[in-house]
Amino acid sequence: MTTPRPRSPLPPRAVDALLVDTTPWLSCDECFERMDVHVEAVLADPHHHDAAMEHHLLGCAACADEARSLLDLLRSGTA
Ligand SMILES: [Zn+2]
After folding, report:
1. Residue 50 belongs to domain spanning
2. What pLDDT digit, counting tens, does each position of 20-39 carry?
3. Helix orientation angle between 28-44 and 61-76, rounded to the nearest 10 degrees
4. How many angstroms does the Cα of residue 60 sit away from the middle of ligand 1?
5. How far does residue 76's CA lie from ligand 1's centre (Å)?
6. If you measure from the C-alpha of residue 38 to the centroid of ligand 1, how many angstroms do you get, rounded to a whole number?
7. 45 domain residue, yes or no
8. Quick one: which of 18, 28, 41, 63 could link to 48 by a disulfide (CB 3.0–4.6 Å)?
9. Measured between alpha carbons, how far is 59 from 48 in angstroms, rounded to an integer?
10. Is the pTM of this model over 0.70?
């Protein structure tokens, strides 16, 4: 009887990538922590690119919503 290997959803390299700082995968907590900085950077430079944030915002409606209202707030607001 052989033991079936558990099938990992990610190749080892992708798992390693999760452990480095530049990982494109953020938790919502991390996303919220970076939200202010990200939104300000986007406002300062429309070409600002933050793969990690963008990736999370693409996949997370809650954070995308938050980012959008923060952008609106800063754009319309007092700066
Ligand atoms: Zn999120």
Report:
1. 23-76
2. 554 557 899 999 999 999 99
3. 30
4. 5
5. 24
6. 14
7. yes
8. 41
9. 19
10. no
